[in-house]
Write a structure and sequence with these properties.
The complex is a heterodimer of chains A (about 280) and B (about 400).
Chain A: H1 2-27, E1 33-35, H2 38-47, E2 53-55, H3 69-72, H4 82-88, E3 92-96, H5 101-109, E4 114-117, H6 123-137, H7 140-159, E5 167-172, E6 176-177, H8 183-190, E7 194-195, E8 206-207, H9 210-216, E9 220-223, H10 233-236, H11 241-246, E10 252-254, H12 257-260, H13 267-280
Helix pairs in contact in A: 2-6, 6-7, 7-13
Chain B: H1 12-18, H2 24-47, H3 55-102, H4 110-117, H5 123-158, H6 170-183, H7 193-213, H8 219-243, H9 249-258, H10 266-284, H11 287-293, H12 297-302, H13 307-329, H14 335-347, H15 351-375, H16 384-406
Helix pairs in contact in B: 2-3, 3-5, 3-15, 4-5, 5-10, 5-13, 5-14, 5-15, 6-7, 6-8, 6-13, 7-8, 7-13, 8-9, 10-13, 11-15, 14-15
Chain lengths: ~280, ~400
């Protein structure tokens, strides 16, 4: 009795699977999509069906870099090199436009389709990238929903925006300064702040000497951690007395790196974080 | 010169060579020194059953009589030069120190630099001069000095003009020690664990080197063993950083292998300076022993120098100084090779007299190199170790050529 029921159940299950794969094959985008860039990894995770994701890049699981690190654990980890992609033979590979040029060329030569994504330089860039990724994986509706969440967060930030128009310098390890022409700048502008990087002559970002940073005298600094630990020489710069003294906690905006590195599903959280940070230092 | 006695057999040719006209003042000074030493040792030695026989003492007496006649005139000239060398060097170091305070990414007029140094002027200027440039200049001075001093001490200990900490892999090993502590997450880069680990590794490397090559080994053996050790330590440093979870390993590797004084703070100075001072003191304290040692190990021993103890003290001194320096600046090479050589023509070949001038010359060299990396226009900061290697390696090659000629060897 139970055996017969079991067999019948199995048949229903099997036909459901066949039907489902038929439907996704016909309506949705490519069946298997891989990504080798940390930012496209996260777009893929946010927009594609779990069974569509064939593999993610090496940094997708790093919680310090990736907003979707825990989700990424469920999918195969790729090396980011051509070899395992050629073995995997996905229907589409998402990649960044910078770096790994040789890998992308090799994949194209072997007839693996590659979609390249630029580094987003503004919130609008992020929205159009989300739309494009949604179309590529065949889930326009998810893309639109995500964009709507971003717009809501954006209006919250604009409502709470600072009226003092403070100049903010984004300082990362080793004195790397996020340029004026960057997503961070766009986020700051939404909160009524301006990026001081242009005053340093770094419109596209770059390394600045500690002296230059101190001399440019920004009103606030934006850093990734409230209490950076000097775990290497690059990070020890953030603990230099010259910075510590001039920028006590009430002159620091703290937004984790994983929120500002890429544009995508983390953007609403990044905007909310910025609003909260402004609130905390009393703007 | 009698070279017949058994214990003198090996070192004798070297001693004979040392007494040539250009080295007369040294021989004379040594003669005076040793005469005093041997007089004080006389009673002690008489009671001790000594295995050296009368060979060494005879050698010294002979040397004095050889050195005495022609030396008087040269000695006067050398004395005058000697007296001028230290003040000149100190003046040079002070000058470079001030220039170092005046140079940086932000252009400040010299007047405002001086004002800011003494707590006047704008807040920003004070921060730049006091918090950023002052610790950097002080570190360059201390680290340069300890490298120069270590080089002079090692050259004195091994009686080998090509000895230097960086050719022996000590800084590279120290960097590996420091990186190991960071990569395993035991401590961060601003903790005292870092200089401790660096000092331990530096000690181990010099110890292993002298154990492997043997203490009376030829120049070639020491340098080959040193090359092997420094390559190994450099590779291990890079590997440790690659294996750590740090995604910015490449930049960190370049810091540890090439060295930099960029954006150091007083915190770094506090980490390194106590050890550098201790190491420097250990090395400077044995000036007389180096002098006696330059007559040969057996002779020094007969003069009451505990050669094994001296060797250990020098290794500890070098490890303390170089290890602590590397823990805050990364590997900066070749200062320890160049400084003693630049000073030798000025102060003569007495290894005891060479120590202070070498330290000052090392300080001046590193200050100058660190000024140069800030002046040379570049998109990203040039590492100071790059500059010292660019100058140091051709210098080293020149030294090898000179040594080859001096030893009468050729490629053919």
């Amino acid at each position: 009795m139970s055996r017969r029921l079991g067999r019948r159940g199995w048949r229903i299950f099997a036909s459901a699977i066949i039907l489902l794969s038929f439907v996704t094959g016909a309506l949705a985008g490519p069946a298997r999509v891989a990504s080798i860039n940390m930012c496209t990894d996260q777009l893929l995770l946010a927009l594609a069906d779990p069974e569509q994701i064939a593999g993610l890049g090496p940094y997708a699981r790093d919680p310090r870099l990736s907003w979707s690190a825990t989700e990424a654990l469920r999918y195969p980890r790729l090396s980011g090199e051509a070899e395992d992609l050629l073995m995997l033979q996905p229907d589409l590979v998402l990649a960044g436009r910078y770096g790994k040029r040789a890998t992308r060329d090799l994949l194209r030569a072997k007839a693996v389709p590659v979609a390249e994504f630029d580094v987003p330089r503004s919130i609008d860039d992020v929205k159009s990238q989300i739309r494009r990724a949604g179309d590529l994986v065949g889930h326009r509706e998810r893309a639109e929903a995500l964009i709507a969440t971003i717009d809501e967060a954006l209006s919250r930030t604009r409502a709470a925006a600072s009226r003092r128009h403070d100049r903010v310098l984004t300082v990362s390890r080793r004195g790397w300064i996020a340029g004026g022409d960057s997503l961070t700048s766009s986020l700051l502008a939404a909160a009524g702040l301006s990026n001081a990087a242009s005053d340093l002559g770094l419109p596209h970002g770059g390394f600045a000497a500690l002296e230059t940073i101190v001399a440019s005298k920004p009103d606030l600094i934006l850093i990734a951690e409230a209490d950076p630990a000097a775990e290497d020489q690059g990070k020890a710069l953030l603990l230099h007395p010259a910075i510590q003294r001039a920028y006590p906690p009430n002159k620091r905006l703290v937004i984790a790196e994983q929120l500002t590195m890429c544009g995508g599903p983390m953007l609403p959280a990044a905007l909310d974080r910025l609003t909260a940070a402004l609130d905390r230092i009393g703007h | 010169m009698r070279c017949g006695t058994t214990s003198q057999g090996r070192s004798c040719p070297r001693n004979c060579k040392r007494i040539k006209p250009s080295n007369m003042p040294l021989a004379n000074r040594l003669g005076r020194r040793t005469r005093r030493l041997s007089a004080s040792q006389e009673t002690g030695r008489r009671h001790r059953s000594n295995s050296f026989g009368d060979g060494p003492a005879e050698g010294i007496v002979l040397k004095i009589s050889l050195a005495a006649p022609g030396a008087a005139a040269t000695l006067v000239v050398a004395r005058a030069a000697d007296r001028a060398v230290l003040p000149l060097l100190i003046g040079g170091v002070v000058l470079l120190f001030l220039v170092s305070l005046g140079v940086g990414a932000v252009r400040l007029p010299i007047g405002s630099v001086v004002a800011a140094l003494f707590g006047f002027g704008g807040e920003i200027q004070q921060t730049i001069v006091q918090d950023i440039r002052l610790p950097r200049a002080l570190l360059a001075m201390a680290i340069g000095a300890i490298h120069g001093l270590s080089g002079a001490a090692l050259q004195g200990l091994l009686r080998n003009p090509l000895a230097s900490p960086s050719l022996f892999g000590a800084p590279q090993a120290a960097a590996f020690g420091a990186v190991l502590v960071i990569a395993t997450g035991l401590a961060d880069v601003l903790s005292f664990a870092l200089p401790f680990a660096a000092i331990l590794m530096a000690f181990a490397s010099v110890f292993v080197l002298i154990a492997v090559a043997g203490r009376n080994s030829s120049l070639l053996l020491l340098i080959l063993a040193g090359l092997a050790l420094s390559s190994l330590a450099g590779a291990a440093t890079a590997l440790a950083l690659n294996l750590s979870a740090n995604p910015f390993a490449a930049l960190e590797i370049s810091f540890w292998l090439l060295g930099s004084l960029e954006d150091r703070s007083f915190h770094h100075l506090a980490l390194a300076l106590p050890f550098i001072v201790c190491g420097g003191w250990l090395l400077l304290a044995r000036r007389d022993a180096f002098r006696a040692l330059s007559l040969g190990e057996e002779t020094a021993q007969s003069l009451g120098v505990n050669v094994a103890g001296l060797r250990l003290q020098v290794i500890i001194g070098v490890a303390l100084g170089v290890g602590a320096a590397v823990a805050v600046s990364g590997t900066i090479g070749f200062i320890g090779l160049m400084a003693p050589h630049l000073m030798r023509p000025l102060v003569g070949h007495d290894p005891g007299r060479l120590l202070w001038p070498s330290a000052l010359a090392g300080a001046a060299l590193l200050l100058a190199a660190d000024i140069a990396v800030r002046i040379i226009p570049s998109s990203t900061g040039i590492k100071v170790g790059v500059l010292t290697a660019l100058i140091g390696v051709p210098f080293f090659l020149y030294l090898i050529m000179r040594e080859r000629r001096r030893l009468g060897g050729g490629l053919a």
